[in-house]
């Protein structure tokens, strides 16, 4: 995954409206259900910070991280909650300073070359019974998208990503030492698999 790609599209990404507002709000509602005011939270791959800004009132502290500096610069101008801090950091650096009560990763896992490695780092950084909350586009069953995506990637208009299936994401999370507490698809037609998992 290239930080340069995300830096280059940061302004366009920030200006793009949310594709499915109802699915986004449903996801936020389920995330808030699991958060509590005493929690210290880290978000991985926060992009331009919209979700972190919306969740900040539900927790004690949220550190929202992204390894694309262009995304973080925009986030810092858009979200100014007193308990919200932004950091340009890769996954290991973002998770340093734990243990954390919860780690969030929305629309991230499918972009990682080493999803399993990321999950191992998350597990190690969480407090006992800490939560990992994620949502991942899963288009593994849509084989016909592969040539289109390949062409867009060759043109520099799409990042590299994995064609995951929901079941594969769940297996990876369990294998990393988590118990899955909740699943859902928001929206269901993609599907975009929402998962809440507890560190064992």
TrEMBL record:
A Pfam family: Methyltransf_23
GO terms under biological process: methylation
Keyword Mitochondrion appears in the UniProt entry: no
GO molecular function terms attached to this record: methyltransferase activity
Keywords: Methyltransferase, Transferase, Ubiquinone
Xref: PANTHER family: TRANS-ACONITATE 2-METHYLTRANSFERASE, TRANS-ACONITATE 2-METHYLTRANSFERASE-RELATED
The protein, known as: Methylase involved in ubiquinone/menaquinone biosynthesis
């Amino acid at each position: 995954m290239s930080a340069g790609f995300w830096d280059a599209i940061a302004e366009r990404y920030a200006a793009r409206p949310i594709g499915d507002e109802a699915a986004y709000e449903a996801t936020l509602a389920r995330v808030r259900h699991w958060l509590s005011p005493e929690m210290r939270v880290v978000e991985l791959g926060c992009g331009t910070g919209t979700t972190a800004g919306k969740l900040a009132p539900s927790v004690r502290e949220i550190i929202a991280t992204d390894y694309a500096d262009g995304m973080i610069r925009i986030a810092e101008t858009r979200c100014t909650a007193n308990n919200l801090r932004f950091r340009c950091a890769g996954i290991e650096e973002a998770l340093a300073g734990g243990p954390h009560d919860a780690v969030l990763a929305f629309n991230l896992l499918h972009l990682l070359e080493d999803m399993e490695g990321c999950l191992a780092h998350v597990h190690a950084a969480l407090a006992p019974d800490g939560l990992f909350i994620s949502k991942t586009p899963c288009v593994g069953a849509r084989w016909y998208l592969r040539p289109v995506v390949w062409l867009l990637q060759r043109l520099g208009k799409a990042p590299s990503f994995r064609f995951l299936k929901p079941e594969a994401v769940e297996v990876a999370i369990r294998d990393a030492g988590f118990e899955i507490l909740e699943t859902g698809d928001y929206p269901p037609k993609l599907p975009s698999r929402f998962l809440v998992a507890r560190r064992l």
